[in-house]
Amino acid sequence: MSSLPHAPHPHKARTGIRRVWHATGYSLQGLRAGWSEKAFRTEACIAAVLLPAAFAVGRSWVEMALLIGAVMLVLITELLNSGIEAAIDRVGPELHALSKRAKDLGSAAVLLSLLLCSGIWAAALYQRFFVHG
What we know:
By secondary structure, the chain is an all-alpha fold. The protein has helices at residues 10-13, 16-35, 38-57, 61-91, 97-129. Helix 3 (38-57) packs antiparallel against helix 4 and helix 4 (61-91) runs antiparallel to helix 5 (97-129).
């Protein structure tokens, strides 16, 4: 073991617009990595339909923001779940109770975001097309 301090990651030494530029690149790499996940691709394709539809379904900017936010939350949660799964898989392929628990918790988060999104969209569609007044 060396007593020398570890060199910081090169990204940490960047400041200002260079740091933002590189961080944006890392984020785009993350989106590309997410696209390699079947669940994320499916949800992204559904989002491609729902996001423009939010402007037709929502009656105010608040309703549109809620509809869009619910869809984006699903995508965000799926990316985080994929990150958890990748980190667990990096540790090793063997079955372990804590690995299963971490993956199950990530999956539960995706499920809850999907239920929330579905509920918000169902209520908005009901309000828009079935409530007269």
